[in-house]
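Appendix B, Record 12. Input sequence as logged:
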Amino acid sequence: MQRRTFIQGVVGGAVAGTMGVSGSADAQEKPSAIRIGYPGVGIGNRPFVGGQPSADLHLRGALEEEFKADGIKVEWNFLRGAGPAVNELFANGLLDISPLGDLPFIVGTASGLKRRVLASSWQRGNLYLVVPSDSSINSIKDTVGKKVAIFKGTNIQLGVAQVLAANGLTEKDLKSINMDTNTSRAAIVTKDVDAYWGGSDVLSLRDQGVAKVVYSTRGDPRFVRQGAFVVNESYVQKYPHPDRVVINRLVKVSKLEAEQADNPAPIYQLWTKSGVQFANFKEDFQGLSLKTFSSPLLDPYMVSALKQKVKIAHKFGLIKQPFDIEPLIDRSFLNRALKEQGLEGFWPDQPSAV
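Logged structural output:
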């Protein structure tokens, strides 16, 4: 991790702090604040994101409501530097908890960061390859030798590595350029890059007529991305009560999403505060149930997917040594929340991804 990435993440990100607290924690259990890092910002660097239950925690003010009584400050840090910037803040003792994509979690752990996985943050995220609308590029193989924007250190990079490998390519076959999401979007418009790998945000570029999508992982389970809800190990040991409250609320908003699976319009509308359009969320989630996507479970699917990503990250040289995910998983907060809310069995365990 480089200092430059950290500075970009902090300076380019947006920070929202709100006062709040929850019930009956002992004084010894209460921190002065809960510092939550979010790996990304909305369109135009706005301090709102969408597309997953952990984003709903912020959009609904769920944690501020829970912590209203205890005087604990809830600090949301939205970081343009995404996962690498989140890792930098954890490394510098400036974050307590965060939803985090698979690759930055893996890289941070391999680099010595001590964190626990408390829940799934989101599952089965898609990837898109977009190029300027008048480009001659029409396939992945057409990007050989081209300037391609890839947000390195994020789970996008790992997904791209997998897709390229399936097409007999590596990043070395491209002129890959490390760019964050908003810079990449602008670079497509100005044609400073020939292609950009991104998430559902690229669909708006197509709708504006400035770009075309030439590849999507939608419907292909081999290359999907995952996110985990992680906490600083020393923080959860010292302050278990706030972490329990956070996971309780995560389960509640995940249930709200799941209950909208047959009519997801209200969820998509809430997420538009990020700047991504309603129609783009609707398109991105075609063929994927919100109930499946929002599951907080650390079930056989999620654990095997993370294990597989560790192996893949090592294979592509993104970490020096693989490691075992199992000792980092702590289901105690999640299991307690599911039991207290009568949700045991609400999300059925999904089978192993491998």
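Residues 1-27 have pLDDT under 50 and may be disordered.
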